[in-house]
Amino acid sequence: MNNTLMEVGHLVQLHWSRKKENSICTFLYLHISVKKEIPDIDETSVKNVVGVDMGMNFLVTAIDSKDRMLFVGSRHIKNKKAQYKRIRKQLQQRQTPSARRRLKKIGNRENRFQTDLNHKVSKALIRFAGKNSLIALEDLTGIRSATTRVKRKNRYYSVSWAFHQLRFFIEYKAKRAGIKVIAFDPKYTSQKCPKCGHTEKVNRNKKTHTFSCKTCQYTSNDDRIGAMNLRTKGIEYLHNVSVQA
Ligand SMILES: [Zn+2]
After folding, report:
1. Model confidence over 135-176: pLDDT tens digits?
2. What is the pTM of this model?
3. Which runs of consecutive H residues, i.e. helices, occur in 130-142?
4. What pairing do the DSSP bridges indicate for beta strands 3-7 and 35-39?
5. How far is the centre of ligand 1, averaged over its atoms, from the C-alpha of 240 (Å)?
6. Ligand 1 centre from 203 Cα, in Å?
7. Is 205 helix (H, G, I), strand (E, B) or coil?
């Protein structure tokens, strides 16, 4: 079994705000302090596979091997984000020193809100998955898939620090909890029917948030479909590992 050094302890946040345009801060994480040896999770000990769909506004949908589901996030997040955006826009137009000061303040508050949210979401997900599980999530960092995804789903946040932060939180909390995390290419995860495999763009209706297979008529919430397809990727991964071993 491979052992890796896992850095646990304090998370140091360094941030600075850009002066112009939006006041969203760029975050840089330094993960420092006590080094503790944490064994890598052995694939053969995995008993539960959790597929995770990370939607816009950080609404996370997860489904596990027993078909249990988890939804984290709410409409409230969307409203809150819209509210921040509105205030920022108003302040940006004013161009006065006091408006700039307020803009910076608002930006900091928004970052704290996002960080807090990411902590909550990752914590809920780790608790849901439990020990000896594999979390299969979308790799939104791959440039090609990230850009197409952003375009497709209008997820401008997916390439931002907030998504990276959420992924980072999930990964380090998972490791501490004995959970393996693997990121998969999200290609077709929202178009593929988890029942019959039929893959077509029109299977999904973004407006109604529903997925309805044009071949077998299987119908469900679209985020749930994404989570199911990621779970399948996780199961396939485990299968391949066991075949190779
Ligand atoms: Zn189908």
Report:
1. 999 987 643 444 444 444 444 443 467 888 888 999 999 999
2. 0.76
3. none
4. antiparallel
5. 24
6. 9
7. strand
How confident is the model at residue 141, as a pLDDT?
61
Q: What is the pLDDT of residues 211-238, one digit of tens each?
A: 999 999 999 999 999 999 999 999 999 9
Contacts of range 110-115, beta carbons closer than 8 Å, 24 or more positions apart: 110/23, 110/24, 110/84, 111/15, 111/24, 111/25, 111/27, 113/80, 113/84, 114/162, 114/165, 115/13, 115/165
- Note whether 24 and 58 are within 8 A (CB): no
Q: Is the dihedral of CA 25, 28, 33, 36 positive or negative?
A: positive
Task: Quickly count helices (H) and strands (E) in the chain.
Answer: 5, 12
Q: Where are the alpha helices (DSSP H) in 40-160?
A: 75-94, 97-129, 143-153
CA of 236 to the centre of ligand 1 (A): 19
**How far is ligand 1, taken at its centre, from the CA of residue 134, in Å?**
25
Structure tokens given for 67: 């078909």
Give the Å distance between the CA of 228 and the centre of ligand 1.
Answer: 13
**Which residue in 62, 145, 73, 55 sits closest to 116, CA to CA?**
73
**Domains within the chain, CATH numbers bracketed:** 42-244 (3.30.420)
Judge whether residue 126 has pLDDT over 50. Answer: yes
Mean pLDDT of 54-79: 85
pLDDT, residue 146, reads: 44
